[in-house]
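ligand=adenine
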Amino acid sequence: MNFYIMTLFPDMVMSGLRTSILARALGNGYINIEAVNIRDYAGNKHNKVDDYTYGGGAGMLMQAAPVFDCYNAIVEKIKSRNSDANPRVVYVTPQGSVFNQNMTREFSKEEDIIFLCGHYEGIDERVLEEIVTDYVSIGDYVLTGGELPAMVMIDAISRLVPGVLNNEESAQTESFDDGLLEYPQYSRPEVWREKRVPKVLLSGNHENVDVWRFEKSLERTKERRPELYDKYVQEHPEQFTGKSLKKRKRILDKIAEAEQT
Ligand code: ADE
């Protein structure tokens, strides 16, 4: 998958993304990341890309032309590889839809994707209308620029690109896989500051471990993200009625009993 980032701070983006698992994925060619400096398309000798806003008000606005020329250069490059390409352009902005794991899955299917990072007070609306396909925010707070949100999204998308995670990393169940938060996990030692690892995890009984983990996921989601919990209950009524509930309760009672001894 090829990521292109239109930014005024290409070094910031590249240095943040060239570490750890993404560095390995870049090295292995599973992903490719190119930060393109919008300033290179300023078209004036002072390399100026911002100006005052019409109608007054504080701050400067990024102008349409450099952004558009930068976009066109990237599209030309993509089209030289695949003439049918019609890449999505994600403008990272607090005015967008809030990013989530479903979007991550959707974006990870693209061959090419362009992120547009704004600065100052934003970008001239006319170029946004012309090129942007998706407006996406990372949460209801305002950052100084779009680089950190773009890095967050690229990290989350990349780990779903086939090959980026190794077998061990990708086989792990994790939060949001099934709409629930992940259960608590423990490693050695068995006792730390008088806190014991739950006995069921040492029992070797896989069915019991699965039931315990599922229960912990439910409890944790209910406590920390009640809106996700309600959605899960609505979408999985079979887990909360009849046979499967009875069986689970029976196993959980046994686990609780064993924990006391
Ligand atoms: N730019 C500034 N704040 C942002 C946010 N919360 N999400 C995406 N882009 C942003």
